[in-house]
From TrEMBL:
<protein>
    <recommendedName>
        <fullName>HTH-type transcriptional regulator TtuA</fullName>
    </recommendedName>
</protein>
<dbReference type="GO" id="GO:0003700">
    <property type="term" value="F:DNA-binding transcription factor activity"/>
</dbReference>
<comment type="function">
    <text>Transcriptional regulator of the ttuABCDE tartrate utilization operon.</text>
</comment>
<dbReference type="GO" id="GO:0006351">
    <property type="term" value="P:DNA-templated transcription"/>
</dbReference>
<dbReference type="InterPro" id="IPR058163">
    <property type="entry name" value="LysR-type_TF_proteobact-type"/>
</dbReference>
<dbReference type="GO" id="GO:0043565">
    <property type="term" value="F:sequence-specific DNA binding"/>
</dbReference>
<keyword id="KW-0805">Transcription regulation</keyword>
<dbReference type="Pfam" id="PF03466">
    <property type="entry name" value="LysR_substrate"/>
</dbReference>
<feature type="domain" description="HTH lysR-type">
    <location>
        <begin position="3"/>
        <end position="60"/>
    </location>
</feature>
<keyword id="KW-0238">DNA-binding</keyword>
<keyword id="KW-0804">Transcription</keyword>
<comment type="similarity">
    <text>Belongs to the LysR transcriptional regulatory family.</text>
</comment>
<dbReference type="InterPro" id="IPR000847">
    <property type="entry name" value="LysR_HTH_N"/>
</dbReference>
<dbReference type="InterPro" id="IPR036388">
    <property type="entry name" value="WH-like_DNA-bd_sf"/>
</dbReference>
<dbReference type="Pfam" id="PF00126">
    <property type="entry name" value="HTH_1"/>
</dbReference>
<dbReference type="InterPro" id="IPR036390">
    <property type="entry name" value="WH_DNA-bd_sf"/>
</dbReference>
<dbReference type="InterPro" id="IPR005119">
    <property type="entry name" value="LysR_subst-bd"/>
</dbReference>
Length: 300
C-alpha cells in the first residue's frame, strides 16, 4: 500500500497538538478538513488512531505507535523544507556547472574569483568537459558551451561576444616550412590536431570561403585532447595547430605564435551560459546569470 504522506503529516500535527483545531490553524485549513483527512487515514488503515471527545483529543495505542515511528521522519522533512526555503533568500549552496574546456573567458581566474567574492556563501563545483550530455539529467545547474550546439529549449546568456577559430604556428615553423595560402595546402604541412577522446576521430578544421563553410580533415602529426600540449608544441615549432583565438591570444600577443589562413577564419556566435528554465531559478544560479550580464556581455 502506497503511503498517504499528506495524511500522515496531518496526523502528526494532530498528535503533537492533541487538537484538531490547533492543527487546522497551523495548516491554514478548516477543522473539518483535518477531521476528514484523519478519518480517511483510519479507514485506509482499518484501525482507529485518534480518540475524539467534545473536549479533548487523544491517541489510541495504534495511534501512539504510528506517531512514535513517523515523528522523526516528519521532523526531518520539516528541517529539509526549512533549509530549502532558506535558499530562496540570498545566494548560497553548491552551484554545479559543466563548462567547455575552451571557454577561456568564463574559466579565467578573475571572472570566477570576482563571482565568489560577491557571493561568499556559494561554492562552485565545475566539471570541465567537452562531452555532449544532458545537464539536467546529470544533475548540473547550468553549462557553458558554444551557442551553436545548445538545445533550443534552453535559456542562454552570452558569456562573450563573437569568437573565431584560428590556425596558428610559430615563426620558426614558417621560416622552415613556409606559410600555407589556402586550407587545402594543410595536407602538406605538419599539423597538431585535437580529438575529444582516444576513440574519436581528430576534429575537422573548419573554414569559410566566399560565404560558404567547409572543413578540412587534416592528418595530424600529433593528436591530443590537451589544448595546453597543442600550444606548447606549436610554440616549439612542431607544426600548425587550430583552436579558439582566445586560447592562443597570450602567445600571439607575445609573438610566439602567428595566425595563418586568417582570411578563411570567420567569426561566429561564442560561448553561452545555459540552463533549463526561467522559472524559479535558485538564487545561486540567478547570481551567476547577473554576474555574466554585469560583466558586459549580452543576452540571447
Amino acid at each position: 500500500m502506497e503511503p498517504d504522506l499528506n495524511a500522515l503529516a496531518v496526523f502528526a500535527l494532530v498528535a503533537e497538538e492533541r487538537s484538531f483545531r490547533a492543527a487546522a490553524v497551523r495548516l491554514g485549513v478548516t477543522r473539518s478538513a483535518v477531521s476528514q483527512t484523519i478519518r480517511r487515514l483510519e479507514e485506509r488503515l482499518e484501525i482507529a488512531l485518534v480518540l475524539r471527545t467534545t473536549r479533548s483529543v487523544s491517541l489510541t495505542e495504534a495511534g501512539e505507535r504510528l506517531y512514535e515511528r513517523i515523528a522523526p521522519a516528519v521532523a526531518d522533512m520539516r528541517v529539509a523544507l526549512e533549509r530549502t526555503e532558506a535558499l530562496k533568500g540570498r545566494p548560497r549552496g553548491r552551484l554545479r556547472l559543466a563548462v567547455s574546456s575552451i571557454a577561456e573567458r568564463f574559466l579565467s581566474g578573475p571572472f570566477l574569483a570576482d563571482f565568489l567574492q560577491e557571493n561568499p556563501e556559494v561554492d562552485l563545483d565545475i566539471t570541465v568537459t567537452d562531452e555532449d550530455f544532458d545537464i539536467v539529467a546529470e544533475g548540473y545547474d547550468a553549462g557553458v558551451r558554444l551557442g551553436e550546439v545548445i538545445a533550443q529549449d534552453m535559456i542562454a546568456v552570452s558569456v562573450a561576444g563573437d569568437e573565431r577559430q584560428l590556425a596558428v604556428c610559430a615563426p620558426s615553423y614558417i621560416d622552415r616550412c613556409g606559410m600555407p595560402s589556402h586550407p587545402a595546402e594543410l595536407a602538406s604541412h605538419s599539423c597538431i590536431g585535437w580529438r575529444p577522446s582516444p576513440k574519436s576521430a581528430p576534429y575537422r578544421w573548419e573554414f569559410a570561403e566566399g560565404g560558404k563553410e567547409f572543413s578540412v580533415a587534416v592528418a595530424p602529426k600529433v593528436a591530443t585532447n590537451d589544448m595546453a600540449l597543442m600550444i606548447k608544441l606549436a610554440v616549439a615549432g612542431a607544426g600548425i595547430t587550430f583552436g579558439m583565438e582566445e586560447s592562443f591570444r597570450p602567445w600571439i600577443e607575445r609573438g610566439e605564435l602567428v595566425p595563418v589562413l586568417e582570411d578563411y577564419c570567420p567569426f561566429f556566435a561564442g560561448f553561452y551560459l545555459y540552463y533549463p528554465s526561467r522559472r524559479n531559478a535558485a538564487p545561486k544560479l540567478r547570481a551567476l546569470i547577473d554576474h555574466v550580464r554585469n560583466s558586459g556581455r549580452g543576452y540571447r
